[in-house]
Hints:
Elements: H1 2-42, H2 45-51, E1 53-56, H3 69-80, E2 85-87, H4 92-104, E3 113-116, H5 129-133, H6 138-154, E4 159-160, H7 184-199, E5 212-216, H8 235-242, H9 244-251, E6 256-259, E7 263-264, E8 267-268, H10 273-283, E9 289-291, H11 299-302, H12 309-319, E10 324-325, H13 330-339, H14 345-361, H15 374-380, H16 384-397, E11 399-403, E12 416-420, H17 446-451, E13 457-461, H18 487-495, E14 499-505, H19 526-536, E15 540-545, H20 553-558, E16 561-564, H21 572-580, E17 645-647, E18 651-652, E19 656-657, E20 663-671, E21 677-687, E22 698-707, E23 712-719, H22 721-724, E24 726-727, E25 733-734, E26 738-747, E27 750-758
Helix pairs in contact: 1-14, 2-13, 6-7, 6-15, 6-16, 7-9, 12-13, 16-21, 18-19
Amino acid sequence: MKRTQTLLLLALFAIGTSQAQDKKKMDKKQDIEKKIDALMAKMTLEEKVGQMNQYNGFWDVTGPSPKEGSAALKYEHLRKGWVGSMLTVRGVKEVRAVQKIAVEETRLGIPLIIGFDVIHGYKTLSPIPLAEAASWDMEAIRRSAETAAGEASASGINWTFGPMVDISRDARWGRVMEGAGEDPFLGSKVAAARVKGFQGDDLSLPTTIAACAKHFAGYGFSESGRDYNTVDIGNATLYNTVLPPFKAAKDAGVRTFMNAFNILNGVPATGNSFLLRDILKGKWGFDGFVITDWASIREMIAHGFAKDGAEASLKAVTAGADMDMESHLYVKELVGLVNDGKVDIKLVDDAVRRILRVKYELGLFDDPYRYCDEKREKSVIGNKANNDAVLDMAKKSIVLLKNEKNLLPLKKSGQKIALIGQLANDKTSPLGSWRIASQDETAVSVLEGMQQYKGNTLTYEKGGEAYKGKPTFLTEVEWNTTDRSGFEAAKAAAKNADVVIMVLGEHGFQSGEGRSRTNLDLPGLQQELLEEVYKVNPNIVLVLNNGRPLALPWAAEHIPTIVEAWQLGTQTGNAVAQVLYGDYNPSGKLPMSFPRNVGQVPIYYNQHSTGRPVDADKNVFWSHYMDVEKTPQFAFGHGLSYTTFKYGTVKLDKKTYAKGESVKVSVEVTNTGNYDGKEVVQLYIRDIAASLSRPVKELKGFELVSIKKGETKTVSFTLTDNELGFFNNNGDYLVEPGTFKVFVGTSSDNVQEAEFELK
């Protein structure tokens, strides 16, 4: 009886505490709205429009003020209160200086929100986001974003233009390195994890920063994988593939969204009321603010959607774009448009209210300098804890694609190892793209990581120059295609080795924005070098450094061991070495399919069946290629371990379910190898017949499970209406009765199946 009373009291206490916390949050929200009302009542139209204006960093703020040119104009606007945000101003001294102008030299003293591209770390870099997604470890991804937020906020920044949650099926598009790959379910989980990592539980803490879900929407479906290109997709793809990660980010509390550059069905995303007003701010009830991408309001003129800056501004504000990034058009045009009656002042007021709301939530009105602590800046940025965190993330991001001869893990002693490739001794490329706060030459190279292991004889040869000069963020990488002078030395080293480690791939600046490719092979002379070394010693471990899926048909056929090591950031070399030597057993899985050649692209596992999916009549009239299989080289979800896992029979708790009932799925997984390991157990479904054709497989669950050698674990999943339904072409969510297949396995192309009926 006493135990029952105690439990009842604890339950009542928990309910009371929860209600008190909810009331506190509601009171705080109402208090903010009242403060916004009071502030906006004091603002002139010009000052309101100023809050909708963001400028890029334009001078050394702690130095002399600019006297002429665009920088001087921006400085004048800043002092007038006509600037709501700055981007790329960083470092406590610089941020404090620019914030002081806004707070102490303007009429109303409204603080700036300071934005920056914190994409996969600030100065201490985690793996590129696509690599992080390969971990399938949401807690690790959350911690990675938290680490990045900690460093960025210590540098004065309180807003990041991340996460990028664009789904893409086309590896030609360079910005796949910023996203989570091809699948909306995995992408949604990653989006939520990153938002929570950046923003934490309390946005007003000086260690958190506001996140931004980008690019809304469809950017990852740019035709031919060419950046900024046209997007033309159907509503089924929009609602079921493109939008889910954005909705997940919104549900996770993301405070800002960013427009996409592209047109969607003929309308630029920046001027797209359907996306911004109807879906985001209407149906989803988003109450944060929307920022344009760089100059995307002005680019609507180039799109042929607006005749001049005034019309572009009118269409953007009408559609729901709240803040103008570097078009300089809102600050130039909006006041006149309102005064001429062409733009309703309510549109401006709504945008300003949204911007001020986020500033209040960040605590900037309570203390505009809360992010300007020089002691914290010195103690946090680049510290040991951050380096340990990104090393952990890097190891979890590595994917073992192939290990046929069990060349890995390497022995700790008694082996002669040849390490070949310019990228193996590169301390800049592994940092990847989109890392503007980091410094060149700060990554641990693979050579440095391997040198930490003293038991073997290690010989390094560059194998010649892979690329020319010093690649930069603003220029395209120039690859060596003629000079083979390092080949013979590389072959000589390989000939005398027990194992050859070849580090090949892309330079870190070969992926990212503006870096589209029509070939997905190893650029320059790297493929030729690989084949020449293979002739003298086939015991090759190919370590890939890249920011996108590559097409590697020759390597997939001939090279016994292939390790997908992406661009892993600051601790790249240590992470790679620890995996190669077996101090960390790889558990990563591909978040994006690897094609056999570029002609298959776009390629993705969750395709729809054609009317002729197989060779039923033994003739050519079925959906296939004449010159290559239609399957990927390495499928979505693929990834090996140094141990092996055996899956039992997929079990359902029953065969028939009523609509609304939960479907219970379980499978036994046994570690049958010689090492402890982690396995990502994946669950897919197929709705056999529906009012809209459904994909042949859809990821609807996964579990990252640690299993000791010889151990068996039961992994269970629960499927609800949230997993069993889909959106129709009107954006309505449907759960329809019928037959469903359930697939459980180690990758999208290696599963066992069961079947049930939904009545």
